[in-house]
Amino acid sequence: MKFRCERDTLADAVATAQRTVASRSGALPVLQDLRISANADGLELIGSDLEITNRVQVPADVEEPGVAVVPKLLGEIVRKLEPGPVTVSVTGDEAVITAGRFSTSLRLKPAEDYPRLASSDGQGVRVDSTAFAAALRQVVRAASKDDLRPILTGVLMTAHAGGLRLVATDSYRLAVRDLKGVSMLAEGQRVLVAAKGLAEVQRLAGDGEIEVVLRDRDVVFRTSRAEVTARLIEGDFPNYEQLIPSSYPNRLTVSRDSLMDALERVQIVGQNRDNAAVRISMTADGLELAMSAQDVGTAQESLDAKFEGTELTVAFNPVFLRDGVEAIETDEVALDTIDPLKPATLRAAGGDDFLYLLMPVRTS
Amino acid sequence: MTARRDATILHVDLDAFFAAVEQLDDPGLRGRPVIVGGLGKRGVVSTASYEARAFGVSSAMPMARARQACPQATFLSPRMARYVEKSHEVMAILGSISPLVEQLSIDEAFVDVAGARRMLGGPAEIAATIRGRVLDEAGLCLSAGVASTKFLAKLASDLAKPDGVLVVEPGTEQAVLAPLPVSRLWGVGPATMTKLERMGLRTIGDVAAIEEQTLVGALGSGLGRHLHALARNDDPRAVVPERDAKSIGAEETFAADLHTIPKCERELVRLADRACARLRSAGLTARTVNVKIRFGDFETRTRARTLAAATDVSTVVLDVARELLSEFDVGRGVRLLGVALSRLDAVAGTQATLDLTGDAHSEQQCRTERRAAVERAVDEVRDRFGSLAVGPATLVERSDGARGRG
Fold first, then answer.
1. Which numeric CATH code is attached to B178-231?
2. A135-174 pLDDT, tens per residue?
3. What is residue B313's predicted lDDT score, i.e. its pLDDT?
4. If interface means Cβ-Cβ distance under 8 Å, which residues of chain A face chain B?
5. A113, A138, A158: which is the final residue of a domain?
6. Is B102 a catalytic residue?
7. How far is CA B82 from CA A39, A196, A274, B17, B301, in A?
């Protein structure tokens, strides 16, 4: 295999593909490397941990087609090269990389050791890239990172009211986002996609459209820059609908930016404290945030806000609350509450396409 | 010098800690120079592996100079979260040896083993035990100094590095201290050193030999007295465990090895219960649950899981501990099981959870709340009847011949 490629092009492609290579502890060492194939169309770079696969295609001047498995080191090398053409030439178990007057030779693992990955073929549904990425941004954050509960590490994609609904929960909060008019799944169809894979999709989404190809065991997202394949997670997602209260006696409406800023300031005293809670007191006069951390100190701030309901104080994990407020894109957010122990809901004031349900912290 | 005291204070210091963790996690780096630090233009070296130190690389050296001195090294940015995790593991091991652990930094601690001697032998033996366990269980090397004071223990661990132990036997302190340069005394910087040298004082022995008043006259009363005392190994500071301990736990060694999950789980119930009772009595909650297992062949493994929210409820801890246990092959025979709780914090609140099972109205949560209430009631009963030995007493309790309860 021998090809020539611009440094910037190759560096970007390697950076994207290597994001999904297996971590050090993987069982198959070859998955820590990148698979590069070269043919008349250019290069294809693959990074995969078998759960999530990134495929990047880039133009290159291919002199001799072929396949090789190249260590991630390639990325570091290419990044540090001067702008200009880079030549990669593979013979046997050695890759020689030359650029200007620099050259390096890397030892390679046998290309045939790389597992055979399912191709990413298939026709899919096209969705607007910007809107899809925005929806993912709102939902992915609520998914669990704990591999012991694999179902909660996924984002549920389901058909809902003629559109697409995305749902994630880590059992402390729940995010639900509707994408109206996007029909990707048959009515009643539910698939669970690894949140880690969707975070990749969100990162790679650019202008234009994303093509989503749903297959038996995985789903492929084709963005303008790369293809992400994520395995579907097996199992039943919790029945999240019964968790959402049908009505709330109390509603607070407040400026999103003011609330974000106040939260950022107030939570400084609780930083690095796992169980610090921010107390939100709501009255007809507005809203007060208060936080105290033993041995550190206290902080409070009051904000103008509109409140309808009975005065109450609810405590939340400041990180979870901040995540919810941050996800909302409108100028004003609505915080709906029942009592200090029941789930509260954040949504855009006047909007109904995103909901962030949050369990309070019980303070004694 | 003060009255002769036993050498019961250990100072332990992990060798090239950040670099050692990187070498542990990536076997490809073992035996090779590894430099951890800021990789940007103005970065400095945080830690260099001993292989890199051989090329003259040292901590706080500008990264650019380190790259010149040892270009073949692997340069890595620090992964603090991982180091903190490993530090917790090591501190948990120290905590199981003696309740008197005072952590100085991420990779250093003092341990007073006066109370552990009945169980674990002399300080030198305990130092060897700690080094062996930290190597076996956490995969890291540490150096230890053993002496009658904190000052000398820290000095001794420094002299023992790397991967060594230095025990300063009572009565030999002066002999060890006397030939060392004055710069080894805490509080001697370049300015003080110049003054001391001008007085003709080059070694710690020189400082110990002169009148305190002479030193006070030259350096002022505070520093003068301080250095005079240190030079005579007079350092009354005790090892003070942090008010909030780093981990709380319970472990048990079994008379006969356990070979099945149900048998291990039955023990796990008691251990989780005991650990959580201690947690609650200290007014703390924990975020991380650690399960430790020692097999019949003495191979010891630990697994940890961090919860999304802190808890002090036994059943919550037990659920996680069970899941962690299932990752081990208990068929090999289990000699010891332990449950430890770390990332402790004072009780501020309990994060409520959504009822994802869809049972009756928030049943899981009600159950957890009911359990929490029951457990608090049990704690009260145990308190009143004194049936539960809490905390430090456990090390002494072991000497009754029971095979390891703690």
1. 1.10.150.20
2. 999 999 999 987 777 899 999 999 988 899 999 999 899 9
3. 85
4. 24, 144, 146, 148, 152, 169-174, 238-240, 242-243, 273-277, 293-294, 315, 317, 341, 343, 357, 359-364
5. A113
6. no
7. 41, 20, 17, 11, 17
